[in-house]
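Hi R.,

Here's the chain you asked about this morning:
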Amino acid sequence: MAKRKVFYSFHFDNDVFRVQQIRNIGALEGNTPVTVNAWETIKKAGKKAIETWIEDNMKFKSCVIVLIGEDTHNRPWVKYEIKKAWEDGKGLLGIYIHNLKDPKTGKCSKGVNPFDQFTFKDGTKLSTKVKCYNPSSSDTYNDIKNNVEDWIETAIESRK
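And the predicted structure, written out as tokens:
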């Protein structure tokens, strides 16, 4: 099976090392990670530059994976990416990554479901339509590695 092209949405400052572990699984073709310096340059250029970067990097991806750490739900650009992914009809899912160890800070607390913040006109929350996976706390990496492709296919299929 060809590797799926995915876009990773996450809190850069807190979770970049956890996210790098997922990128290294190699089962997926994800957006190339932006360096700290490049991200700072984009941020200094303003809101429109950030939106353009997100749009350019989300384009041609079939699925958006929100990698959920302790504070992911508070990040404005994660919210923007979730909204855009949903409006663009992309597969969308969340994976809790709090049990992956960061080499500097270790594990973190489980974050809030970021899809709970979006409500449709009929009062239904986006979290009822988008699945968040909570991998095993004892073998988080392998749980993600062994299941992420199926989770993505399920997310893409749910949008058809």
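The chain has one domain: 6-158.

Let me know if you need anything else.
M.
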